[in-house]
Amino acid sequence: MDLIIGSHVSFKNKEQLVGSVREALSYGENTFMFYTGAPQNTSRAEIDDNLTREAHELMKKNNINPVNVIVHAPYIINLANNGTNYDFAIKFLKEEINRVQKLGMKYLVLHPGSHVGLGINLGIENIINALNFVLTKDTNVIICLETMAGKGSEVGSKFTELKKIIDGVIFSDKVMVCMDTCHLNDAGYDISNFDKVLEEFEEIIGLDKLACIHINDSKNEMGSHKDRHDNFGIGKIGFDKLLDVIYNEKLDGIPKILETPYIGVNDDDKERIYPPYKFEIEMIKNKKFDEGFLDKIRTYYK
Ligand code: FE
Ligand code: FE
Ligand code: ZN
């Protein structure tokens, strides 16, 4: 079993990709995921080719294969509603694809979007039209549509919706899927019977279309449509079920990315918060839950 595991890491203006690689290595990862700037906005710095080169050397030295590294588009990009921000979203996505290419990466994860009152069918149509604007025969980047929780009017909480999008895209070979265990659970898919979820995915979309998988526990029950991530093993999905996903033979070689929340010094602390990834990955590699891992994180970073 080829375990390819990483987490969301930062991408800061000064060090750019070099900083991201260093952060991933500090957590014991052999892959990672980053946004090319802040996840919640679209202000983006010019990519510095020297830093990118340095980062790729560092990856090579540490056996991180760039093809396993994932870029995530900012989540305010909404292709499902063709209102005032639609043209901007399309333009931004085009530029983002160029940045991903420039950074030497292949996979760009994208939330399909929210139709905001237009209805699911129009939402899907808008997404298809936008992707057909953006993707050309020369595009070297794969757009990975993420499975969503179905919060509000989100499109993509059902495999059938993602399938419709893929089928409508002209260059559909450049569209794949990124699963998210928290989102799947919240959308109503039963992670405790993950083989059945994969069977359904295989029937509707095809396992060859699965590019990566976000590994998160969920704070809410199956079918809640909430989308609140929890730390590994302490949410409603639980340690054993998440471990079964990670070590599922059918997902061999597919990058697994943690997006679990940072840990506050106190439960309600919003400022003094620390990344849990080094400790969660340790548990994943040991295949053993550590009751005291939250306290260990707090002690380690204090
Ligand atoms: Fe996401
Ligand atoms: Fe996700
Ligand atoms: Zn989420």
List keywords for this structure.
two-stranded antiparallel sheet, 302 residues, eight-stranded parallel beta sheet, binds zinc ion, alpha/beta, binds fe (iii) ion, 10 helices, single chain
What are the SSEs and their pairings?
Blueprint: E1 5-7, H1 16-26, E2 33-34, H2 49-61, E3 70-72, H3 86-102, E4 107-110, H4 120-134, E5 142-146, H5 159-168, E6 175-180, H6 181-187, H7 194-204, E7 210-215, E8 217-218, E9 229-230, H8 239-246, E10 256-258, E11 263-264, E12 273-274, H9 277-286, H10 293-301
Parallel strand pairs: 1-10, 2-3, 3-4, 4-5, 5-6, 6-7, 7-10
Antiparallel strand pairs: 8-9, 11-12
The structure holds fe (iii) ion (2 copies) and zinc ion (ZN).
